[in-house]
Write a structure and sequence with these properties.
- With 226 residues, the chain is mainly alpha-helical.
- It has two domains: 12-78, Orthogonal Bundle (Arc Repressor Mutant, subunit A), CATH 1.10.10.10; 83-221, GntR ligand-binding domain-like (Four Helix Bundle (Hemerythrin (Met), subunit A)).
- The protein contains nine helices and two strands.
- It has helices spanning 12-29, 41-48, 52-65, 83-104, 110-128, 132-150, 153-170, 185-194, 197-225, and strands at 68-71, 75-78.
- It has a two-stranded antiparallel sheet with strand order 1-2.
- A hairpin with a 3-residue loop joins strand 1 (68-71) and strand 2 (75-78).
- Helix 4 runs antiparallel to helix 7.
- It is globular and about 55 Å long.
- Residues 1-13 have low confidence and may be disordered.
């Protein structure tokens, strides 16, 4: 008899891996799993209620994302962010978000444009309240929408690893670095309204440059205080 095609429903290992990955990502973001913390298989099995296999598969993904460090027969632990990693990731994230905006904005219909504007307003509210988690969540949504509407599979694949890494590394940065994002919302809204991909891309480039400059200033100030 012919072998039936595999589906999500009859592939529980893949589904379990994805569930475990989602839970571990959330735990890293909310501080349940902290930088430098060692990961123990038995403890993870008890916490997540699954076997070692999906846990190891999820950890392999986290290693690819740069969120977990592993050395055979020595340790598996949550990575400790550093400034160089943040700078490198911001550069890559900013670069492909520029591309995504340039490609996606001219294609937007009224519904998709409205979805982006709603996410931008959520980002404005988070920044005004100096709520780092809300601001980052909204920014994450904006980036993902630009990527989704760019309709570029390779860009979407790249984002799978870069976005979680950027979220993780942002937790190690000064809160004050991010509040200026609200100053870029109106220019982005205007570009979206005109369906001007080049203007949207230029605004994102300016935002990335501003965050980079502010990050450097904050670090310099902290070094001078020591």
């Amino acid at each position: 008899m012919p072998v039936p095609k595999s589906t999500v429903e009859n592939s529980p290992r893949k589904l379990l891996r994805d569930v475990v990955l989602e839970k571990m990502l959330a735990a890293i973001q909310d501080g349940t799993l902290q930088a430098g913390e060692r990961l123990n298989d038995d403890e993870l099995v008890r916490w997540l209620g699954v076997s070692r296999t999906p846990i190891r598969e999820a950890i392999a993904k986290l290693v690819d994302y740069g969120l977990v460090e592993m050395e055979a027969n020595r340790y598996t632990r949550i990575a400790t962010p550093n400034a160089k990693q943040f700078d490198d990731t911001l550069q890559v994230l900013g670069g492909f978000t520029e591309l995504a905006a340039r490609w996606s904005v001219p294609k937007l219909d009224d519904a998709t444009a409205g979805e982006l504007v709603e996410a931008l307003e959520d980002m404005r509210r988070g920044a005004e309240a100096e709520d780092l988690r809300a601001t980052n969540a909204a920014l994450d949504r904006v980036v993902k929408l630009f990527i989704a509407y760019s309709d570029n599979e390779l860009l979407s694949k790249l984002a799978e690893s870069v976005i979680p890494r950027a979220q993780f590394l942002a937790l190690s940065q000064s809160r004050g670095v991010f509040w200026d994002v609200q100053n870029f919302i109106d220019p982005l809204r205007a570009a979206i309204s005109r369906r001007d991909g080049d203007a949207a891309s230029a605004t994102i480039r300016s935002l990335t440059t501003t965050v980079d400059e502010l990050t450097g200033a904050v670090r310099a100030g902290a070094a001078a205080d020591r």
